[in-house]
Amino acid sequence: MRKPFSQIMREGLSAYPFGFYVGEILYRAPVDGRWSIEDIEPRAQSSVQQWIEERQEDGRFNVVGFKQWVPSRGNYDVPLSKCLHFVPRPEKRSPEGKSAFRSGWRAWMYARNLEESEAIGIDRDLTGVPDIQLPPSIMSPNADSASQAVRVDWEEKGRKLRAGKLAALVRPSEEIDGKKTGYAVKLMTSGGTQRVVADVPIRRHEQRFLISVLSDFMTLGEQVGSRALGDPKIALVMLAIGGLLDMYADAFNEQVIGRLCDLNGVPEDLRPYLERGEVQTPTLEELVGILSAAITGGIVVPNQQLQDWVISQIPGAPESEASPAGPQAETTPIASQTAP
Question: Which pTM does this prediction carry?
Answer without folding.
Answer: 0.65
